[in-house]
Specification:
Strand content: 15-25%
Distance between the termini: 61 Å
Strand order of the largest sheet: 1-5-3-4-2
Helix content: 10-25%
Oligomer: single chain
Number of helices: 8
Number of strands: 13
Largest sheet: 5 strands, antiparallel
């Protein structure tokens, strides 16, 4: 029997015959719903990285579309008499109407997203510079992450999330504490229990190494700790690895174990920790081994007031009042 088949049998057995969903601590979408937070009024982010440009009937519909397409931010034009025209363009074009009409006539609808689509789903949110913002009083800008984190070296992996690479090798425990105790962001070691995440984070790790000009890098750079570990005292079975939120790997169908892993040797009988390779596979290691690691920045908490994540920093505009929304 192959290892892949054995893992599948173990997973099915524990789902059907094992402990309850509560004891497995599986993720509950209702507990952590996706929520887009208002970050900028009277502005929209550049749509150079847009996943979709659509016309929808409400902000909720735009947000649901963004969630479906794995968008991390969006622009939305609420419409209404006070938001039907771009006041900024009106001021600029007041004495240049004919020239502006001629210029626009030569553009496609996709080159004029603000004119033809009220919902723009974006791959990534803006960073603290807000350099990609366009003044447009018809639109507001929303992000899953609320106001941008002040940490400078984070990266957006499109349609996946925001991550910080720490190249200084650390043990798994210290790596986990670094992520959870960071003052610049709320986060944890990166969640990888899906093919999409493992594949894209592995590609990002490889690209990160190339940007550093270290190819071929030191051997350890090919491995980075992520949020998956086994602890015998908390495990329900020998393959019950848990992510940074304590959710069991038994709750997820995807596996990316490298050949020969997970190792169940006496050395790793009590605890083992998982590192991601640049091939997108998972390796089990002694948790005391020091490696680079990947922190994942968490989305802003849901249920906050509308203005709690509103940003009034660089390039912000104030033409839109609360009454205009």
């Amino acid at each position: 029997v192959s290892k892949a088949m054995l893992l599948g049998i173990v997973l099915i057995f524990h789902v059907l015959m094992g402990p309850t969903r509560g004891s497995l601590k599986c993720p509950d979408p209702q507990t952590h719903p996706h929520e887009f937070h208002l970050v900028r009024e009277c502005q929209r982010a550049s749509v150079d990285d847009a996943i979709a440009l659509e016309n929808v009937s409400s902000l909720e519909d735009c947000a649901n579309l963004a969630i479906e397409l794995r968008g991390l931010a969006l622009n939305y034009a609420p419409g209404g008499p006070k938001r039907s025209e771009n006041l900024f363009k009106t001021k600029i074009s007041l004495n240049n109407t004919e020239r502006e009409k001629h210029r626009r006539s030569r553009l496609t609808v996709f080159q004029q997203p603000g004119e033809f689509f009220n919902c723009h789903v974006l791959q990534c949110p803006q960073n603290t510079s807000f350099a990609g913002m366009v003044n447009d009083s018809r639109f507001d800008y929303y992000s899953l992450y609320g106001r941008p984190t002040v940490v400078q070296n984070y990266n957006c992996v499109p349609e996946v999330g925001l991550f910080v690479m720490f190249t200084q090798p650390s043990s798994y425990l210290n790596a986990s504490l670094t992520c959870t105790n960071a003052t610049e962001f709320v986060g944890s070691l990166a969640h990888i229990a899906s093919e999409f995440r493992s594949r894209f984070l592995a590609q990002w790790l490889l690209e990160f190494n190339r940007k550093l000009g270290k190819l071929p890098p030191e051997p350890n750079v090919f491995l980075a700790y992520v949020g998956l570990a086994y602890n015998r005292s908390a495990a329900l079975n020998p393959l019950d690895f848990r992510n940074a939120q304590g959710e069991s790997l038994d709750c997820f169908l995807y596996r990316a174990w490298e050949v020969g892993h997970p190792r169940l040797s006496p050395e790793l009988a009590n605890a083992s920790c998982v590192a991601l390779t640049v091939q997108g596979t998972w390796q089990t290691l002694n948790c005391d081994r020091e490696l680079p690691f990947i922190c994942e920045i968490h989305a802003a908490k849901s249920g906050k007031s509308l203005e709690s994540e509103l940003d009034i920093g660089p390039n912000a505009v104030f033409e839109c009042s609360n009454e205009s929304r």
